[in-house]
Design brief:
- With about 475 residues, the protein is α/β, with parallel strands linked by helices.
- It has helices at about 35-40, 95-110, 120-125, 130-145, 145-155, 160-185, 190-215, 220-225, 240-250, 290-305, 320-330, 350-355, 375-385, 400-425, 425-445, 450-460; strands at about 10-15, 25-30, 40-45, 55-65, 65-75, 90-95, 115, 230-235, 265-270, 275-280, 310-315, 335-340, 365.
- Helix content is about 45%, strand content about 15%.
- Strand 9 (about 265-270) and strand 10 (about 275-280) form a beta hairpin.
- The structure holds guanosine-5'-triphosphate and magnesium ion (MG).
- Guanosine-5'-triphosphate binds near residues 238, 284, 344 and 345.
């Protein structure tokens, strides 16, 4: 277990966001948490916090000597049954920063040290209550912007990813033991030797499949966490900004009959069916007339290149023209959907022409003005980015880039072990690769993690968590 943090101190922080609110919570953790509470809290029942039963809530006053600070509720959670596995005291006073700050200051004056960002969770990790993947899930849960991603984080917080990883680790360790056995006790009987090599190959194969399955969930995990980037493009005046507003359900972008209304890219986030999206409306400029428009075109192209999905908007009320055609080249190689807009008007566009250009492309008919076909468009978008299905690994999704990288490295090592074994090279190489694979897994759970990595992870937390 990494040793880099002083666990002897009692730490304190305001655990709720500063600002006006119903209550503000100050949290203490460490050896002296309860004795500090004894010196700052006068319960209505006159009992000291050190006499409180675990997990019971008590009403009283926080006071500095005789000087009243605020009314509060106080809870004691003794080690090891607490968030950090240390003695924890939580004091809920009135919300608004003055009260919480005064309670915090008093606790510091009585000997507590202001906590670093994420230090409570760091202690939970160092004291072995959660592993590193679970600590990161705490962070994800705090930052989750959608219910869909919250669900992923909640599963990870429960340790489901860790359990899955432990299973793979065990498989690899079995393989490792098997290799070592063959290396150290070479059998005289070649028959038996062949048998144990076959068992070993099977163990490695299974580990590879499990790592591969988990890694395959990474893309969906990333999408749920970061959102899907959708770029809206099309020639001027086809209704790009109108469609952006419809998808956002608010009039974010200026809409006007003047061609060239949007001169900059407009980015907003939205949720469609619980999935986070980053929507980008682009300028419809095709032939830039000045430096500003040149920049606008450059930005549009940059966004299109980086898009997960492009919505190619066409005005269905006018025939297809050269301006639409120009965009066709930009779209090649991209994941895109064709959107026929202005379908409330008489259709003048020749859909067959489009089909000839993009024989396999999917299209949707909408009216941004009348808000028609929006549900169909949303369905098509979701179906497109989800590829119609969720990979199911008992609900476990890998959503953290650090984990994805470690799994990739692990997979590579397992594959090398497999190849080395098949090619009949020395078994020592096989055992080395297996060991490497196990090490990569261990960086995810924190069984094997250096201080720099831990510092880096916990620095992303807010104070009080
Ligand atoms: N009839 C009809 N008019 C629409 C529809 N969608 C947009 N319009 C109108 O088309 C005009 C252009 O709409 P915008 O949303 O500004 O189009 P844009 O593609 O963003 O235009 P630029 O930013 O100039 O490239 C406005 O007058 C809109 O009211 C639609 O579905 N039906
Ligand atoms: Mg516009």
């Amino acid at each position: 277990m990494p040793q880099f943090s002083n666990l002897d101190d009692t730490i304190v922080a305001i655990a709720t966001p500063l600002g006006q609110g119903g209550i503000g919570i100050v949290r203490l953790s460490g050896k002296n948490a309860v004795s500090i509470a004894d010196r700052m809290f006068l319960s209505k029942s006159k009992k000291k916090p050190s006499r409180f039963k675990n997990f019971t809530v008590h009403y009283g006053d926080v006071a500095r000597g005789k000087e009243l600070i605020d009314e509060a509720l106080l809870t004691v959670m003794r080690a090891p049954r607490s968030y950090t596995r240390e003695d924890v005291v939580e004091i809920s006073s009135h919300g608004g920063s003055a009260s919480s700050r005064a309670v915090l200051r008093l606790a510091v004056d009585l000997g507590a040290r202001p906590a670093d960002p994420g230090e409570f969770t760091k202690r939970a990790f160092l004291n072995g209550r959660i592993d590193l993947a679970q600590a990161e899930a705490v962070l994800d849960t705090i930052h989750a912007k959608t219910e869909a991603f919250l669900k992923v984080s909640a599963h990870q917080l429960k340790g489901e990813l860790s359990t899955e990883l432990e299973g793979i680790r065990e498989e690899l360790m079995n393989a490792y033991v098997a290799v070592e056995a063959i290396v150290n006790f070479p059998e005289d009987d070649t028959q038996a030797q062949r048998r144990s090599a076959a068992v070993l190959a099977e163990k490695i194969r299974q580990a590879r499949q499990q790592v591969g399955r988990l890694l395959a969930t990474g893309e969906q995990g990333r999408i749920l966490k970061e959102g899907i980037k959708i770029v809206i493009c099309g020639k001027p005046n086809v209704g790009k900004s109108s469609l952006l507003n419809v998808l956002l359900k608010q009039p974010r972008a200026i809409v006007s009959p003047v061609a060239g209304t949007t001169r900059d890219t407009i980015e907003e986030t939205a949720q469609i069916q619980g999935i986070p999206f980053q929507l980008v409306d682009t300028a419809g400029i095709l032939e830039p007339r000045d430096l500003i428009e040149e920049e606008a075109v450059r930005r549009s192209h940059m966004h299109i290149q980086g898009a997960d999905l492009v919505l190619f908007i066409l005005d269905a009320s006018v025939p297809l023209n050269d301006e639409d055609q120009k965009l066709v080249d930009v779209l090649r190689g991209q994941n895109f959907l064709i959107v026929f807009n202005k379908c409330d008007l008489q259709t003048r566009i020749d859909e067959k022409k489009i089909q000839a250009i993009f024989p396999k492309a999917k299209s949707v008919r909408v009216s941004a003005l009348k808000k028609e076909g929006v549900k169909e468009l949303e369905d098509a978008v979701v179906e497109r980015v989800w590829h119609g299905q969720m990979t199911d690994t008992k609900g476990v999704l890998v959503s953290n880039m650090r984990h994805v990288r470690a799994l990739r490295d692990c997979l590579e090592a397992v594959q090398k072990a497999e190849e080395t074994l098949a090619s009949g090279l020395s078994l020592e190489f096989v055992s080395e690769e297996i060991k490497r694979a196990v090490n990569y897994l261990d960086t995810i759970t924190g069984r094997h993690a250096d201080n720099d990595l831990l510092e880096q992870i916990f620095a992303q937390f807010c104070i009080g968590k």
